Amino acid sequence: MLAGQRYRIELTEEQEASCIAFGAICRAVWNTALDQRRQYVDRYTRGRDGQFCGYHLQARELAEAKTEETWLRAAPSHILQQTLKDLDRACREHGTFNVRFRAKARWNPSFRFPAGNLITVEKLNRRWGRAKLPKLGWVRFRMSRPISGQIRSATVSCKSGQWFVSFLVEDGQLTPQQHARPDSAVGVDRGVKVAATTSDGTFHDREFTTEGEKTRYLKLQKKLARQEKGSANRSTTLGSMGRISSRAVDRRTDFCAYTANRLARDHATVVLEDLNTKGMTASAKGTAAHPGKRVAQKAGLNRAILDKGWHRLELALTNVARYTGTRIVKVNPAYTSQTCYPCGHVDSESRKSQATFECTACGHRDHADVNAAKNIFRAAGHAVPACGDLGVTWSAKQEPEGTREGVPLQLALPLVGIPRL
Q: Which residues belong to any copy of the Transposase putative helix-turn-helix domain (predicted)?
């Protein structure tokens, strides 16, 4: 199967200048092609005639433009064509007017070499290797792990002033027909205080930003507000803020990958809530005619959700499930935090605090996140026995029938696609 492996690279001054130029050209091609597509959609909706603006037409126009515009010749043709392919896929998946332009101030340079047969990789020693990329030559990279397969493509990107290369490799592995522990299953509740809580009572969490980094970042924000836009000092401040943010992102990515690996390794079925994270973290500002309410509180909630990496954990689980044969099940999240697991009574008053759950009907007490994780687990057709072991069938002795009240928890979506090869 296909897998991505990223390495930190060290560029010479000439290579770094070339990478910056390649990224700028790709950004210009993206913005120009997106503008063409929007103009075509606007003409089409107004009933005017016009040739369909798709990848093949834009690729031909790009080839013609390279013969006239000298600045386009500096970048390899295949990375520009790959930019048009990425734009075409984004427009088909999200809609032309939902795809954003790449602003110079907000976009990090990146470009992809799609021809794996043109990329040569050599190991120099235990720590370093080098890769030969078109028009860049030999590029040294920190070989933190061996490349485990045939290279299909390479993507060069910049993050907080540091350059990376990501190899897409075919590692030759297949998804197992059966998990190593086929009878094991677990429910996972994602929260704003604890990143992930499982139905067996395990809490997965860590701090992604230290107190010192928070203080430093706040000072840099105040400093940024006093600086003139476009100045060199402002760029320096933005770079310092970006380095602090990138460290938090790296820690969050590592946490999600580690947690997902443990969950998929130990359980054949992982049950998650079907959460629309993008919609849940939308701004509450509203419009001038209809201003939003409690905007500051909603902004704080959005930051807490994004800080815990809900969607990133889901993606990491889906990725590692290919290697373990784990099934990822999504269930309806409605009332999972307000339902008493033993008796099924639904009442918002049962949630006494963020961490305390005490049923108003039967008096059952439990950690609120653990109780929610058990409800999520049961919504997929499983039950958590009172003895604490994870079961895959409903226990009539420990879970009395006919006591569930309110809105039942039902499976909202089918099993997420894990291919059985």
A: 1-42
